[in-house]
Amino acid sequence: MKYSKHCPKCGSYDILYAKGYTGGYGSGSNIMYGVTIFSAVDVDRYICGNCGYVEHFVRKPDIERLKKSKKVKQYE
Predict the structure, then answer these.
(1) For residue 15, how far is the Cα from the chain centroid?
(2) Which member of 8, 23, 50, 74 lies 3.0 to 4.6 Å from 28 by CB, making a disulfide possible if both were Cys?
(3) DSSP character for 35?
(4) CA 50, CA 10: separation in Å to the nearest integer?
(5) Where are the chain's structural domains?
(6) How far apart are CA 11 and CA 14, in angstroms?
(7) What is the pTM of this model?
(8) Residue 47, SS3 per DSSP
(9) Residue 9 predicted with pLDDT over 80
C-alpha cells in the first residue's frame, strides 16, 4: 500500500496513513530495541479505509539500527 497506493486485499484506493511515534515510557507505535526511549524505532502504518487491512513499515535508516541490536534477531 505504501508504494502501490491501493490495498492488496480488496483493491481500494482509500488508504490512511498513521505516522509512527514514540511517547513517554515507550508508548506509541514503535519497536524498542534497547532499554531507554532513545532506543525506539518508529513504525509507520498504512490502513485500508475499506477493509481495514494494515501494513507496517520501518523507515530505512532505522533498519540498520535494528540489525545491530541484540534484542532483534534475523528470522530463519
Answers:
(1) 15
(2) 23
(3) S
(4) 8
(5) 15-62
(6) 9
(7) 0.81
(8) strand
(9) yes
Residues 25-39 as b or e (16 or more Cβ within 10 Å = b)? eeeebbbebeeeeeb
Q: Contact 42/62 with Cβ under 8 angstroms?
A: yes
CB atoms within 10 A of CB 40: 22
pLDDT for the residue numbered 48: 98
User: In sequence order, which residues have a C-beta less than 8 Å from that of residue 20 and are 6 or more positions away?
Assistant: 28, 29, 30, 42, 43, 44, 45
Cell numbers at 21, concatenated: 511515534
Q: How far lies 11's CA from each of 4, 38, 42, 53, in Å?
A: 10, 38, 27, 11
Q: Assign 61 to helix, strand or coil.
A: helix
pLDDT at position 62 is 92
